[in-house]
Amino acid sequence: MEQKNKSVNIGRKGEQIAIDYLIGKGYKIVKRNFHFGKVGEIDIIASKDNLLVFVEVKIQTSDSFGDPRFWITPNKQAKIRKVAEGFLYVNKLENIESRFDAIFIDFRYQPPKVEHLENAF
Questions:
Q1: Looking at residue 56, which CATH number applies to its domain?
Q2: What is the overall mean pLDDT for the chain?
Q3: Among 7, 22, 104, 114, which is least packed by CB within 10 angstroms?
């Protein structure tokens, strides 16, 4: 149980770092941890310049699982797209430009290294 709590804490800390980074780049945070039924979750939904950005955050603490860019599999991308469609539906948003970004937080560095990949998929 302690390992799970540690993972949750690192996850929250990583998402907060991503949010702080986005705010620093002029983004407005629209929603954090948006769930759409049993389909899935989007970590961060942000906006900037009339663009809605759905952000997946990936956190790396070791080399054990390889490059985090490969962690967002085609299956994961499809789920994120469905959740994004759910967000648009629930909020009655139409004809809005959007994109999917990924932010990678690498805790092997101090301070943690942040990489923002726009139009990740």
A1: 3.40.1350.10
A2: 93
A3: 7
Report how many domains make up the chain.
Answer: 1
Phi, then psi, of 50 in degrees rounded to 5: 60, 25
User: What's the average model confidence in pLDDT over 9-14?
Assistant: 90
Residue among 1, 7, 23 at smallest CA distance from 103:
23
Paired tokens of 14: 């990583």
- Amino acid sitting at position 116: H
Entry pTM: 0.91
In angstroms, the CA 7 to CA 19 distance is 18
Q: Rounded to whole angstroms, how far apart are CA atoms 38 and 108? A: 33
Give per-residue pLDDT as tens, 88-107. Answer: 999 999 999 999 999 999 99
Residue 101 lies in domain: 2-117
CA distance 77 to 80: 5
